[in-house]
Amino acid sequence: MDCPKCTGELVAARYGDEIEIQRCNVCAGLWVYPDDLQRMKSTWLAEAVLDTGSPRVGKSLDEVDDIDCPLGHGPMLKRVDPEQSHIWYEQCPVCDGIFLDAGEFTDMKFETLLDRVRGVVKGRRDVD
Q1: Which residues pair with residue 3 across a beta bridge?
Q2: Is the dihedral of CA 10, 11, 15, 21 positive or negative?
Q3: Are 69 and 77 in contact (CB under 8 A)?
Q4: CB of 6 within 8 A of CB of 24?
Q5: 21 backbone dihedrals φ, ψ, rounded to 5°
Q6: How far is C-alpha 11 from the geometric centre of its chain's CA atoms?
Q7: pTM confidence score
Q8: Regarding beta strands 30-32 and 10-15, do their DSSP bridges make them parallel or antiparallel, or are they unpaired?
Q9: Which among 54, 122, 51, 56 is positioned nearest to 84, based on CA atoms?
Q10: Could you report the per-residue pLDDT of 28-78, keeping only the tens digit for each?
Q11: Beta strands in the chain (DSSP E)
Q12: Which of 126, 108, 99 is nearest to 32 (CA)?
């Protein structure tokens, strides 16, 4: 599958026997499904093994937000993490696949005081 944000390709990335996701071989963005995302959040060190990209690269790709599902289902919807409003991601309305830019999963897993400040500074995103 082609990465929806850059010229890279989504390739399988595994953590243990339970989690298999797709990671871009260029920008290190993550293509996950909601069940896998929940497993990743509750699995020790999943972020260190799976979210290996540079948060700086991920942040630069925040500007690319009108993307299509890599499975060919058309435009993805813009979403805001309900717990941390500074985290913006895209989700396919057909297959529920989620695209997280590099560093977003790690940020999502660990909320800090700085994250709360970021949410205020960055503001809310207009969502579809």
Answers
A1: none
A2: positive
A3: no
A4: yes
A5: -130, -175
A6: 15
A7: 0.85
A8: unpaired
A9: 122
A10: 999 999 999 999 999 999 999 999 999 999 888 888 879 999 999 999 999
A11: 10-15, 19-24, 30-32, 77-80, 88-91, 98-100
A12: 99
